[in-house]
Amino acid sequence: MPEVTPHTLRHTAATWLMQKRADLWEAAGFLGMSVEQLERTYGHHHSDHLKGARDAVDRRPGAVRLRSK
Q1: Which of 32, 25, 26 shows the shortest CA–CA distance to 9?
Q2: How many other β-carbons are positioned within 10 Å of the β-carbon of residue 27?
Q3: 29: number of CA atoms within 13 Å, CB side?
Q4: By residue range, what is the domain housing residue 12?
Q5: Chain CA centroid to CA 11, Å
Q6: pLDDT 10s per residue in the chain (69 long)?
Q7: End-to-end Cα, the chain, rounded Å
Q8: Is pTM, for the whole model, over 0.70?
Q9: pLDDT of amino acid 2
Q10: What is the number of domains present in the chain?
Q11: Are 43 and 49 in contact, with CB atoms under 8 Å apart?
Q12: Is residue 13 part of a domain?
């Protein structure tokens, strides 16, 4: 089993914070990084990632909803 390092724990915490829709400023402060770094590195884990594109597809006439809101 690989050794668990502080980097692994920080990565896991950042991923979980994004998945739980944590406030970006609070999450970045907790993790000791900038909001820009958090968004760039972990933003794809946030539930709002690609929301605009998903909503655009949902607005097509006759579209089947991709996700419940």
Answers
A1: 32
A2: 22
A3: 5
A4: 6-58
A5: 12
A6: 678 999 899 999 999 999 898 999 999 999 999 999 999 998 888 777 777 777 787 776 765 666 654
A7: 39
A8: no
A9: 77
A10: 1
A11: yes
A12: yes
